[in-house]
Specification:
Blueprint (H helix, E strand, L loop, with lengths): L2 H26 L8 H11 L1 H62 L1
Helix pairs in contact: 1-3
Length: about 110
């Protein structure tokens, strides 16, 4: 799954969880709100302002945690690629030095 699909999944999941929690609060909580569509959202946000603030903060914290985690994953992947490239370069240099030393030993053995 690509990075933007993961982010979109987290955002949509947070919205769905918030809607479900508010629906539960409206269904089992005190019934102060008129159940007309646009008005019920504002009424629920007003009556359950601590809940709405907590859900918003939890959603933002979850998204920020995912954002940091994905940035670290990109950084680790880049570091692994760089280390592999360095390893190939070092192996080439060492192989060249070993070949040069072997040629020198062969020449030294002729005398």
């Amino acid at each position: 799954m690509t990075r933007w699909k993961q982010g979109l999944s987290i955002i949509l999941g947070s919205i769905a969880a918030t809607v479900l929690v508010f629906a539960g609060a409206l269904a089992w909580g005190p019934h102060h709100c008129k159940l007309a569509f646009p008005m019920v959202i504002g009424c629920a946000m007003g009556n359950y302002e601590n809940l709405s603030g907590g859900m918003f903060a939890a959603s933002v914290a979850l998204f920020a945690g995912w954002l940091a985690w994905s940035a670290v994953q990109v950084q680790v992947s880049a570091e692994e690629k760089r280390a592999a490239a360095d390893r190939v370069e070092i192996e080439g240099v060492i192989q060249g030095d070993l070949d040069y030393m072997a040629e020198g030993l062969v020449l030294f053995g002729r005398f």
